[in-house]
Design a protein that fits this description.
By secondary structure, the protein is mainly alpha-helical. It is built from 17 helices and six strands. A two-stranded parallel ribbon has the order 1-4. Helix 1 packs antiparallel against helix 7, helix 2 crosses helix 7 and helix 15 packs across helix 16. 19% of the residues are buried.
Length: 508
C-alpha cells in the first residue's frame, strides 16, 4: 500500500487548533469552588483536570498526516511506519482519552432550545447567540454566587464544547447538548468520545485533501511562500500521544516524557519543548528517506546505465550500417555469382540439349537403317518362307498321295483278306458239311475210322490258300478229337470266330 502523499510532494504547514485544554482547565479551576471542582472531577470528563504540561505540536501532527496511506476506512487513521501499516482506531482513542467506549446514543426528547433552564440562566435565552464564542464569554463572565449545580453543569458544557468538540468559534453548538448536561444519567451514557473521535479524525484527514496541488500553485504565485496554515477541529492531542507510542525516538530525543501509570494514557505524557520540522522528518521518514536515497541511487545508476545504453545504441547503429553494407555487397556478389551460375547452367543445358538432339538424330538414323535392313531381311525371309511353304506343300502333297496309295493298298489288301476269309469260311463250312454227310452215311462205321476223318479235316485245312503279300504265320490249330458221342455238340460258329481273330491279329 502506498502513501497518500508521496515523499517528493511533501510541503510545509503551520497548524493551529481550536481546542485549548490548558485554558479550559485553568478557567474551570478559577470559576469553581473546591467542592464544586471536586464534583466536576467526578463527572465522565473530570479526569482531564489531571493533565500535565502536554503542549500541542502541530509539526508532529503534520508528519503523522504525511504518513497516511491510501484506501483506508473513513473512521480509522492508518499510517506507514517502517514499511508496515499501523492503525489508530476508536479503541485506541478511548484508551488514551479515558472516555467511555460506546457508540450508542440514549433516547432524547425533542425540546426547544429556549426551554433549557441553562440557556435562560447563563446564555440569556438567545438561541441565535449559542456559539462557541458566546458560550466561552458567558462562562468566563459567570458569577460564582450562582446555583452550584447549574454552575457545574455549565462547566461541563464549556469543557465539552471548548476541548472535545472544539470548532470554529462562530459555529453554533447543538441544542441537544444543553439538555444533556441537565440530565446526569443521559450525560454519562452519551457517546462523547465517539463524537469527538469522528470530528477529529475526519477533519484531520480533510486537511490533506488537495493540499499538495494547492501548495504548488501557491508557491508559483508567491515566490516566498513556504507553508500553508490550517486549524484543526476536535481534540488532536490523543493522536500526538499515539505518535509518542509509535516512534520511541521522540522520547529518546527528549521531545516527550512519559510519567505516571494512569489508565488514561494522555495523563502519563508531558512535552518539554516544541520539536523542529527537520528533526521530526528525520525520525518519521528515516526509512523512507533511506529508501528515497536508495531510489535516488538507483535512479542515478539507471541514468548512467541509460547513457551507456545510448552510447551502445549509437555503436549498434553504426554496426548495423556496416552490416547493411556488407549484406548489400554480399547480395550483389551473390547475385553476380548466381547470374554466372545460371548462365553456366543455361549453357550446360543448351549443350546437353544439342548433344541429346545429335544422339536422337543418330538413333533415328540407326533406327531407319535397322528398319531398312529388317525390310530387306524380311523380304528374303518371306521368299525363303514362301519356298519352304511351297516345298512343305509339295511334300505334304507327296505325303498325301503316298497316304492315298497306302490307303488304296490297304483297302485292296483288306478286300483280298476279306475275300480270303470268306473263301476260308466257305471252305470250312464245306468241309464241315462233308464231314457231317460222311458221319451220317457212315454212322455205323464211324467208331472204327475217327482218325481218318480227322486227318481228312486237317488236310482240308492245310489246303487253304495263303495270301502271297502277307508274312507267314502260324495258326494255332487245336487238335480236336471228335468222339462219336460228342460230334453232334461241335459248335461251328466258335471255329469261325477263332479264324476271324487269328486273321485280325495277322493284319495288325
Amino acid at each position: 500500500m502506498s502513501l497518500l502523499i508521496s515523499v517528493s510532494a511533501h510541503f510545509g504547514a503551520q497548524y493551529s487548533v481550536c481546542s485549548d485544554i490548558r485554558e479550559a482547565i485553568n478557567n474551570i479551576e478559577k470559576k469553581l469552588s473546591p467542592s464544586q471542582f471536586e464534583e466536576f472531577h467526578r463527572t465522565p470528563i473530570g479526569h482531564f483536570v489531571g493533565l500535565k504540561n502536554l503542549q500541542f505540536s502541530g509539526q508532529i501532527i503534520h508528519q503523522m498526516l504525511l504518513l497516511l496511506v491510501e484506501d483506508q476506512p473513513d473512521d480509522e487513521f492508518w499510517i506507514l511506519r517502517n514499511g508496515e501499516i499501523v492503525k489508530f482506531t476508536f479503541n485506541d482513542w478511548c484508551r488514551i482519552t479515558g472516555l467511555p467506549n460506546t457508540k450508542r446514543y440514549p433516547p432524547l426528547k425533542d425540546k426547544e432550545l429556549g426551554q433549557s433552564s441553562l440557556c435562560h440562566t447563563f446564555l440569556g435565552g438567545e438561541v441565535a447567540k449559542c456559539t462557541f464564542k458566546h458560550v466561552r464569554e458567558k462562562y468566563v463572565a459567570a458569577e460564582n454566587t450562582m446555583d452550584s449545580k447549574k454552575l457545574v453543569d455549565f462547566s461541563m458544557l464549556y469543557f465539552i464544547e471548548s476541548v472535545l468538540l472544539a470548532k470554529d468559534r462562530s459555529t453554533c453548538i447543538e441544542s441537544t447538548h444543553l439538555h444533556l448536561v441537565e440530565e446526569p444519567k443521559k450525560f454519562k451514557s452519551y457517546p462523547w468520545a465517539w463524537e469527538s473521535y469522528l470530528l477529529t479524525i475526519r477533519h484531520m484527514k480533510g486537511a490533506m485533501d488537495g493540499q499538495p496541488e494547492k501548495f504548488e500553485k501557491k508557491s508559483k504565485e508567491t515566490p516566498n511562500y513556504k507553508s500553508f496554515k490550517y486549524t484543526f477541529y476536535g481534540f488532536p492531542l490523543p493522536i500526538q500521544v499515539w505518535a509518542y507510542e509509535c516512534f520511541p525516538e521522540l522520547v529518546e530525543k527528549n521531545l516527550a516524557v512519559q510519567e505516571g501509570t494512569s489508565s488514561c494514557e494522555i495523563l502519563n505524557w508531558a512535552s518539554k519543548k516544541f520539536p523542529k520540522a527537520v528533526t521530526l522528518k528525520d525520525i518519521f521518514f528515516r526509512e523512507l528517506q533511506q529508501k528515497k536515497d536508495s531510489d535516488a541511487d538507483t535512479v542515478r545508476a539507471i541514468r548512467d546505465l541509460k547513457k551507456r545504453m545510448d552510447g551502445l545504441e549509437v555503436k549498434i547503429d553504426e554496426i548495423k550500417k556496416l552490416l547493411v553494407e556488407v549484406v548489400m555487397n554480399l547480395n550483389s556478389s551473390g547475385r553476380r555469382r548466381r547470374s554466372v551460375r545460371i548462365q553456366r547452367q543455361k549453357r550446360a543445358r543448351t549443350k546437353a540439349a544439342e548433344e541429346d538432339d545429335e544422339d536422337l538424330e543418330e538413333d533415328d538414323e540407326i533406327e531407319e537403317a535397322a528398319e531398312e535392313y529388317e525390310e530387306e531381311t524380311g523380304a528374303d525371309e518371306d521368299e525363303d518362307e514362301t519356298r519352304e511353304n511351297k516345298e512343305e506343300s509339295m511334300e505334304s502333297e507327296d505325303d498325301t498321295e503316298e497316304t492315298e496309295e497306302n490307303e488304296e493298298e490297304n483297302a485292296i489288301g483288306e478286300n483280298e483278306d476279306t475275300e480270303q476269309i470268306e473263301d476260308e469260311h466257305t471252305a470250312v463250312e464245306k468241309s464241315h458239311n462233308d464231314s457231317d454227310e460222311d458221319r451220317a452215311e457212315k454212322e455205323g462205321t464211324a467208331e472204327h475210322e475217327p482218325q481218318d476223318n480227322m486227318t481228312t479235316t486237317l488236310n482240308s485245312q492245310e489246303a487253304l490258300p495263303i495270301p502271297s503279300d502277307t508274312h507267314m504265320f502260324e495258326v494255332d490249330s487245336h487238335m480236336v478229337e471228335v468222339d462219336d458221342n460228342e460230334g453232334d455238340d461241335l459248335d461251328e460258329e466258335k471255329l469261325l470266330m477263332e479264324l476271324t481273330l487269328n486273321k485280325v491279329k495277322f493284319l495288325k
